[in-house]
Amino acid sequence: MEPKTTMPGHAPVRQVGTVTVTDDTTGRTFKLPLLEGATGPRTIDIRKLYAESGYFTFDPGFTSTASCESAITYIDGDEGVLLHRGYPIQDLAEHCDYLEVCYLLLNGELPDAQQKADFERTITYHTMVHEQLIRFYSGFRRDAHPMAVMCGVAGALSAFYHDSTDFTNPVHRMITSHRLIAKIPTMAAMAYKYSVGQPFMYPRNDLGYAENFLYMTFATPFEPYKVNPTLAKALDKILILHADHEQNASTSTVRLAGSSHANPFACIASGITALWGPAHGGANEAVLKMLEEIGSADRIPEFVKRAKDKNDPFRLMGFGHRVYKNYDPRAKIMRELCYEVLGELGIKDEPLLDIAMKLEKIALEDEYFVEKKLYPNVDFYSGIILKAMGFPTSMFTVLFALARTVGWISQWKEMIEDPQQKIGRPRQLYTGATPRSVVPLAQR
Ligand code: CMC
Hints:
By secondary structure, this protein is of the alpha+beta class.
């Protein structure tokens, strides 16, 4: 059959057949187109279902619903596969740096040497934030969570840069993307500096992306600071591992906000907000707190027991994933990186790593976790690395937001460029009161 839709640079979506749905109560049947993309599960096209039948579909949490067509990232959760533009995450982490991955996510292809150099230059020259933006920080209490600061300051970006927010203009869309990728590390480092009461450090154009972020975070104006190249490389890899993850909660939030043609900087602020929760990006902070609370290996069984108890809200943080029903490929790389970083820093005995390793082993052998396919996810080991690098736990999710900004803006751009794009407007299964009359106050 003819392709149903083809976006530039996307594999065609083909209709491969139909699916017939029967309403057993009335005997009415509906034929729904069955679609196939480049790979992944076949997808039933329900776009015309309501118009033609008067029925909605019900899928809280979007467990079975594809909300968009996308050519950026592919996950096979059963096999533990993660591809960006077709490239396995392992290859990208091994052979590319973060800015190459950013270029890939944004443009669809890896850059050649000239494109890479041009992209690096562009990003580097956008790293400074408007001087006026700096004042927003002092409006926050010093003990504000840095993610609260990031939500506010990223939202404030929408009050600047009016020269690049015409979403219909492809040049504007690209400039906005570059600005976000470039400025988010500066803003993140400033959130840290503000929390510890140290002066902000301006970005340095002679440093690489991760290197510059470490410099802005840990350097002070009163003495020279040399960034450890091994740590900069490790951080760069951590950024790659977090760069995009298809239609997760924060990305879907960015797309939904953007679907109303809202200011793109404000859309990214909405993504930061969604990421903050412990079920999503906030898990890296929650993992470290959990490991600290466990405190020693002999207490692991007690926490595993709690995680399995239906009457206890406690969950093993860093375990489980909506899509992965196998070991998260990012977690594998993160675990190796953890050893590298601890080795580089000469940390021989890290009690938290010891607890994490033992917890992982026990959980992976436990019937409950095996049966529910709960494996360590990307957040399980990242906190231990970030702690070793000197980041406080409250900064962990900020680092996730920094890395994910490219994913958010690439997905926003793809959505805006999609000719099928419509404002996101889910339906509902209404369970409230049916029509009734207001009883005047005096008679209630
Ligand atoms: N510990 C104990 N039980 C768990 C866990 C866990 N970490 N995760 C899921 N379960 C159980 C859950 O209780 C449920 O059991 P039952 O079927 O008996 O009701 C079953 O496994 C399925 O869980 P779910 O909550 O229905 O699955 P979900 O796809 O809605 O949630 C999740 C996925 C990631 C929110 C969840 O696994 C979780 O809360 N994990 C801990 C938080 C975490 O590590 N989040 C980071 C995710 S990866 C990075 C990112 O996305 O940002």
